[in-house]
């Protein structure tokens, strides 16, 4: 797996690059749709490919480990074979869901004991186990097992947690070295910078993470409730320390505005449940601003869902029809809105890339962040 | 609108025909997917067309009248324009939902007063109003406003109700004559035979309905809980009375076996929620029998969902994957199973038609009804 930095923007810290994997090349900056349980909710794999232009999707280790379970995924020959998505897959380590979804969990140096949210059964994740599981799932990009601190988080806890995350990281790399890919293609481990919103901790963590010389690096512990300024400040600080020649992945971010601002700070990869989760509540992101399709305002609007949209659903369905579907809790409404939002996110990062390559990113970004925040 | 009888099977009463409408020709026998609220649940319109090969779909007057409401549908220029389905649409009269879904309803000679299941608001449907609403929805085929008697139903009530349905039918035809299509294409009224499971009533009702010389005729009040023998007996009796040169539509039927048996009795058109509703519970109809995809048996079965299936989903997704999706309540599982089941129903009636045309229907049907009832 290899990252090539193709162009650096002159007015911002934005970059365009290419990450080569055994399942294909990812052009950055990129947004990665979240496929929690081996499926991006409401979206067929061929729609991800042809309508949304996704280049890489996420899987959630916690969910896949519980259902369908590792035996099934390994039986299929890995997640790509299981769900029929043949492009790259990144899996998180399971840590985030363990902290946020589990009824009971106990974090110790050895690892984390937790209860399944399905049936209350007990499970134990360690850094080593998280690597083994991701090896079995067959992710192209494996994420380190870390603790994602909440917001707000007191300094003492953030510091203690960060150090444990660093010790866990060493164990993750050791386990990667001790094990081999199961399905014949390369799997790379991305370590994760933590440190909450504390500059000295973020600095120290970024330096530590950089020292591992991984194929790519991630920034975690953000987009957990902190104000946007904190998000941008920490991202800027960390991007300044992480090596330039490696891709930078900002985990769980964010709104279209967040994404453009963080591209300008030097981030290459993003993921977020927002486009699909908000779609199910009728929130549509468009190049002219945000639409709440449930509003009365759209009831008699028979114009295409998004005349500027790149997906087929944008042209063949009207605002009025999609409003009706979402208000009636019809599956098709969630499907249309999900495809629309994901296609919009992908078109946005694709245009950002084009703008970086042709040198017009900065002006375009400044105009876009105003429009994107509009409420239509 | 015109029906052409193309071929009569020699060993059974099965027929092949063509119903020409302003939105295209329907080749019979045909199955019509149910698009309750202007959407076949979980299925895109282009999937109905290209994957499922649907030729006509249903809309439910009761649901569409309440949501999105007539103003919206008329504003769009009718249901075809509203939902983007450009082939024929049939609407029921709303009566069935009024009887089965409404909390409160009062049936009188004038019409039926009922409460919305959404908000408890009061509404009043009459035969005239049911025609007006269906004119506004823009159905190609409009169904008469009738009373669908439950099963079991005592003789006296069935008789009284049948006579009222006949009086209502006269009012429906009168209202059709007094009104014109709203969107420039022809709309035809199909009357409905009632009479519960009583032979003399069914006979009398079929004769009455036949006397109206409508473009097509329907058989209602079946598939409401009666045993299959009663369904077949009543269908056979009524088909023997309804004119041969007009299409016969058996409402709300049924399983794949029911459909083949009733084609053999002379039915041309079917609709049923079973393929989509059962799909959402993991029941898949296949040419080898019925699969409950939730069963442990399919957990490690990585073979295609249905190797004999005609839809793309049948080949690109495995049984194991679809089992996982349905058990995890993932939208995509419901989508895949719905497309599969509908494509299977359409492929089944299409093959029935081919067999009728080439004279091999009877033997094929006898073999198929055994296989179709298998539990795999």
Automatic annotation (TrEMBL), chains A, B:
The active site is at residues 92, 271. GO terms for biological process: tRNA queuosine(34) biosynthetic process. This is Queuine tRNA-ribosyltransferase. It catalyses: 7-aminomethyl-7-carbaguanine + guanosine(34) in tRNA = 7-aminomethyl-7-carbaguanosine(34) in tRNA + guanine. Pfam families: TGT. Gene3D superfamilies: Queuine tRNA-ribosyltransferase-like (3.20.20.105). InterPro entries: ArchSynthase1/Queuine_TRR, TGT, TGT-like_sf, tRNA_ribo_trans-like.
